[in-house]
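[Q] Does anyone have a clean C-alpha cell version of this?
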Amino acid sequence: MDTTTTPQDQQANKRRLERSEEGKILGGVAAGLSRHTGASVGIIRLGFLVAALFGGFGIILYAAAWALLPGEGESATPGERWLSNLTTPGKRAGAFLIGLAALIILAGAAPFSILAAVVLLAAAAFLAGDRKAEPLASTNPTPTDSTQETE
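[A] Here you go.
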C-alpha cells in the first residue's frame, strides 16, 4: 500500500497562519501561532513575555503580528483595513504622526521623548477625526414672513 502524500495533500493539511478566536487572551496571535506550528501556546506566550522584558521587543513583535495576520475566517488583516480607511488628508497625517511617535518611543524612553510622543499621538487622534468640511451657511439670509415688509 502506497502512503506517499502529494504536495496538494500537504498543502490541504497545512493550516493557514491566522489569529485564532479559540483560546485567545489578547488578540489571538499566540493561539494562532500555536495552532499553525503545533507548539504549545504557553511556550509562545512565554516567548512574547520574555521578549517584552528585553526592551519591549515582544510587545512590538506581538503588535506587528496582530496587524499583519488576518483573523480566523477573515481575508483582510487589521493593517490592510486600517490603511484602506485612510481616506482624508487628516487621517493620513494622523497615521504619519503615529509612526513618528512610535519611532520616538523606540529611540529612547527619556521623559521628554515620551512627552513628545504623547503630544504626537494626541495630534494624530485629533486629525484622525477629520471629516469632510460641512458647507458653510449662506451669508445671504432668505426672506421669511417676519422679515418681509408689511404695508
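[Q] Thanks! Anything notable?
[A] Residues 13 and 144 are 74 Å apart (CA to CA).
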